[in-house]
């Protein structure tokens, strides 16, 4: 057993991982709220680009950065290719959710019903922000757990 590798124990607590996941979820929710509320998009881009292209790309970039940060804080080194492979999973559930929301608009009703006096774009923005927040929080929380796994030397 003299040649066994020492196990590197992570020093990143659950609160650090949760706080970083909360940051990403909030950023994603704000982006999709602003996009679906038509507060941005001055170039008149097609509406589907926000949830199906820009939102997944934003989550991929933020997720990759946070995953690398967590692995560095945990292990004092980063496996760049492993982290990009893990981060590539993040957009998949988001694209599925946006597909379901596009097809089953009734999924938006519980959230939109809370603000009946808002205009339709703002209601859609609120429900999109709600789903964007939760899908961002769940996916990033799971990825943060994987990110703190230290590589064997």
Mean pLDDT: 87
Domain tally: 1
Q: What is the beta-strand fraction?
A: under 5%
In whole angstroms, how far apart are the ends?
A: 16 Å
Which bin fits the share of residues in helices? 55-70%
Gross morphology is elongated
User: Low-confidence spans: pLDDT under 50, at least 5 residues?
Assistant: none
DSSP summary: helix tally: 6
Structural class: mainly alpha
Succession of helices and strands: HHHHHH
Number of strands: 0
Largest sheet descriptor? none
- The radius of gyration over CA amounts to 18 Å
Task: Give a written overview of the molecule.
It contains six helices and no strands. The protein is elongated and about 55 Å long. The protein is 67% helix and 0% strand. It has one domain (14-147). The two termini are 16 Å apart. The relative contact order is 0.21. Keywords: Membrane, Transmembrane, Transmembrane helix. The chain crosses the membrane at residues 12-33, 53-75.
């Amino acid at each position: 057993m003299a040649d066994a590798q020492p196990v590197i124990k992570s020093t990143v607590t659950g609160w650090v991982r949760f706080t970083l996941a909360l940051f990403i979820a909030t950023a994603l929710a704000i982006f999709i709220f602003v996009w679906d509320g038509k507060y941005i998009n001055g170039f008149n881009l097609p509406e589907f680009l926000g949830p199906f292209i820009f939102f997944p790309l934003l989550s991929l970039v933020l997720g990759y950065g946070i995953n690398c940060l967590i692995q560095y804080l945990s292990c004092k080194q980063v496996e760049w290719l492993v982290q990009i492979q893990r981060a590539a999973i993040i957009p998949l559930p988001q694209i599925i959710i946006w597909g379901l929301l596009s097809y089953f608009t009734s999924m938006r009703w519980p959230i939109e019903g809370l603000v009946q006096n808002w205009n339709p774009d703002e209601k859609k923005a609120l429900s999109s922000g709600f789903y964007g927040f939760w899908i961002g929080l769940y996916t990033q929380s799971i990825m943060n757990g994987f990110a703190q796994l230290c590589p064997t030397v």
